[in-house]
From TrEMBL:
Belongs to the ycf23 family. This is Uncharacterized protein ycf23. Keywords: Chloroplast, Plastid. InterPro entries: RibuloseP-bd_barrel, Uncharacterised_Ycf23. It comes from Caloglossa beccarii. The keyword Signal does not apply. One of its GO terms (cellular component) is plastid. It is found in: Plastid. Its main location: plastid. The keyword Chloroplast applies.
Length: 278
């Protein structure tokens, strides 16, 4: 794993990356500050922000949390790095899909190449567009890895579950199925992309405290959280929900990476060994 920002290395290795996403369209500094403080209190890994020099300059004065900036403009990303951004990301395409603007694998590769030329000493994350079919997603992920991109992010479709579908599947009472269904596009992409590359993958879009553990079991090294906390009104409510996600992450790790005692007989002695079971 090749990361410039060493402070995140252990979190990536232990699959404990939790990033808070403010969104490309969010320029309300009051809203961003609330999400930042909630992320600080809950000890999130980092926060993802729009690539705006004024926002970055202000936040650098009030937090030590790593700042990631997202854009589809390599020059914007470069300018933010010059003003203190720690990580850059090509992605968060939601606002473009609403305008019927889509990105091909070729478009993403061109943006990645240009960004790496400008930002050569910072970590770069690239979102794999979910509008691409699974073969194209795998192909793009492999190409980005070869370009030296540090980690990838998956996304889901910008849609809501049809009310009749909820009624048929009784989702009103089955929150586990509902959460997994809403996040299913990004969960499937996460499984595919993480199986295709040797760099970390972050699962984002419609992830909540229930589906987060599914994302990790599908190969994610981290998750991105936005919608689950965006509409909560107070810093306390936001930070409390993030803490729930941290708790679910710890539970998943303890269940899937737990030590077991294995007995081995060596002549007349019983030898006890500890082995980590994956």
């Amino acid at each position: 794993m090749n990361l410039f920002y060493i402070k995140l290395l252990d979190s990536f290795k232990s699959k404990k990356i939790i990033k808070v996403i403010s969104g490309l369209e969010t320029f309300n500094i009051g809203k961003i500050y609330k999400m930042l403080k909630a992320a600080d209190i809950a000890q999130a890994s980092y926060i993802d922000l729009p690539a705006n020099i004024k926002i970055i300059s202000f936040l650098k004065k009030v937090t030590n949390l790593p700042l990631c900036v997202s854009s589809i403009d390599p020059l914007e990303l470069y300018n933010c790095v010059m003003n203190g951004a720690n990580i850059v990301e090509i992605g968060n395409f939601d606002i473009f899909y609403e305008k019927q603007i889509n990105f091909s694998a070729f478009d993403i590769l061109e943006l990645a190449i240009e960004t790496r030329k400008l930002v050569y000493s910072k970590d770069i994350c690239v979102t794999i567009p979910h509008i691409l079919n699974l073969y194209e997603q795998s192909y793009l992920a492999k190409k980005l890895e070869k370009l030296g991109i540090n980690f990838l992010q998956t996304e889901g479709l910008h849609w809501d579950i049809d009310n009749s579908y909820i009624a048929v599947h009784n989702y009103k009472y089955d929150m586990i199925s509902k959460s997994c269904h809403i996040a299913s596009p990004t969960l499937s992409s996460t499984y595919l992309v993480s199986s295709s590359v040797n760099i970390p993958v972050i699962a984002s879009s419609k992830i909540n405290c229930i589906s987060s553990s599914v994302a990790f079991s599908n190969g994610a090294s981290g998750i991105g959280i936005k919608s689950a906390i965006y509409h909560r009104t107070t810093i306390y409510q936001m930070s409390l929900y993030l803490s729930e996600i941290f708790y679910m992450t710890d539970v998943f790790i303890k269940l899937h990476y737990k030590p077991q005692l294995i007995c081995g007989i060596n002549k007349n002695k019983i030898r006890i060994q500890k082995q980590i079971v994956y």
